[in-house]
Amino acid sequence: MIQKLVSIVKNKYYLTLVVFFVWMMFLDRNDFTSQYEYRQKLSQIHKDQQYYKEEIIKVKKDLKELSTDPEQLEKFAREKYLMKRDGEDIFVIVPEEEK
User: Fold this and answer.
1) Where are the alpha helices (DSSP H) in 1-99?
2) Is the pTM of this model over 0.70?
């Protein structure tokens, strides 16, 4: 039994194969941990891509509304950029942060 194991370990082809697999699994630039990290990044990029596609759809919808409806344009300017008419005062209420 021991003699058989020793002969297998001394076999240059077997040894080369083992060294090759160890190298490819742990020491190569594209090892398993790198591949896992790349897949995680790719998954995050796909999520970001979907988020930005949805945001583009929302922005296009808002742009269409703002370019066709003057009341929406005024509402947008007042809410987002705190614009006001002459003689008006604006009070911005900011909630306190809890400590």
Assistant:
1) 2-10, 12-22, 32-68, 70-81
2) no
